[in-house]
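Give me structure tokens for this 248-residue protein.
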Amino acid sequence: MTLEEIMLYSAEGLEDSIIQATDGEIGSVTDVLFDDDQWTIRYLVVDTGNWLTGRHVLVSPASIRGVNGREHRVLVELTREQIKNSPDVESDQPVSRLKEIEMAEHYRWPFYWAGPNLWGAGIYPYAVGTLPPPPTPLPRDELLNRAEDVVAVAAEESHLRSVNEVTSYAIAAHDGEIGNAKDFLINRETWRVEELVIDTTNWLPGGEVRVSTSVIESVDWARRQVHVNLTRDQIKQSTPFDNAIITS
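Here you go.
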């Protein structure tokens, strides 16, 4: 086991994990959302089951304080009451930027899209409770200007995508297709997607291999293809994927 492998989460391994709040369980992970601009995990989609029947909620890495892969459990610095009172999210609809603003204000999550770094002001999602105290109330004119800024940001296109969807996409190398996207490997500190797992079992006897997301040239959402800057032979020679190591 290498240090690099220890520092990676498997998106597939996160699915079905129990979300453990500070005062009890809230549900299980059904999907993972990433943004296709920064290739970073932004939310876990959580089915609250019989607790809040028929309701799904989103949990940001900013609230996650640990992942126990062996027990399939994600520990979050949130209470059940916070989650119960959070903004409603339609599980079958795209998450708008306006909805992200509502959730960020409710949970005090970072505006990851508003800054030069991976998480806005910084490169790591910060924990709940580390934000500075609320500022002194602003004059009315400045408040109006801030409101206009929020509206402008809310009008931006959301870049959120479903891992469940993309992990069925075909991999298009320079000389033809080779297998399908199988999993995302995620940096445990930044939650950036570092590697893509490719299932090549229909083309290669070796099975699954890992490639850096830096080789992804584009994603054709209409054709459901991930285009990579590699040949099929280069993919064949890539590092084999050992799921037992990543999720342990």
